[in-house]
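stage 2 :: seqdesign
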């Protein structure tokens, strides 16, 4: 059985910076991706997903900050200038990046806010894919040190960066394990 939604779910995959083309993501497409996030399910309608959007020079600022944090949190013996440069490049070679933030309302358990925000990310990922935009969720250690840079409040936490760029999405099939081994039991009577 197949339809467009099922096909998009099956074909979505993590698409990285080296695959991104130079073409800009339009404001209309960005809005569609954000609206997809906003359509995620939430317990008590807390709608806990928040985003900080980086484009153009904003991406350089993000890259510089990630690289600075990498240097700050890495013991001298382990520090690699090459990794610092690569860390910066990840931001500057995306077309747009969103910082993914959970806003804890206190109205439901924290795990539910986190789960709802992850649903919002999956919605964005599917929307991006359907628009010919490659994307992935990046979660380096540096994201736990971005609070001041992002202007977060006490009840907000950055859980990753969502990098995006137009890409050829037809060049490789996603690799996934079978569902059969993930069904623990069938209880039918
Ligand atoms: C919560 C979360 C965090 C992730 N963090 C990273 C990351 O830091 N770096 C990375 O390369 N991919 C990251 N990914 C993307 C996964 O590598 C990717 O989804 C996985 O390889 C499965 O491939 P697929 O998305 O193409 O099916 C993350 C995915 C999730 C759901």
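stage 2 :: out
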């Amino acid at each position: 059985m197949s339809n467009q939604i099922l096909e998009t779910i099956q074909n979505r995959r993590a698409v990285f910076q080296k695959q991104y083309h130079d073409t800009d993501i339009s404001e209309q497409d960005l809005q569609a991706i954000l609206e997809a996030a906003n359509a995620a399910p939430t317990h008590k309608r807390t709608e806990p997903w928040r985003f900080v959007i980086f484009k153009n020079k904003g991406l350089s600022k993000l890259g510089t900050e990630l690289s600075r944090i990498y240097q700050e949190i890495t013991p001298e013996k382990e520090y690699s200038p090459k990794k610092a440069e690569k860390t910066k490049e990840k931001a500057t070679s995306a077309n747009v990046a969103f910082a993914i933030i959970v806003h804890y309302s206190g109205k439901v358990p924290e795990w539910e806010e986190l789960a709802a925000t992850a649903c919002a990310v999956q919605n964005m990922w599917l929307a991006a894919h359907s628009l010919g935009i490659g994307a992935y969720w990046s979660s380096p250690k540096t994201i736990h040190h971005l609070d001041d840079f992002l202007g977060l409040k006490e009840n907000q936490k950055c859980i990753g960066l969502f990098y995006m760029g137009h890409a050829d999405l037809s060049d490789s099939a996603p690799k996934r394990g079978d569902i059969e081994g993930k069904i623990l039991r069938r209880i039918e009577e």
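stage 3 :: structure notes
- The pocket of flavin mononucleotide is lined by residues 13-14, 136-140, 160, 174 (CB under 6 Å).
- DSSP finds six helices and four strands in the chain.
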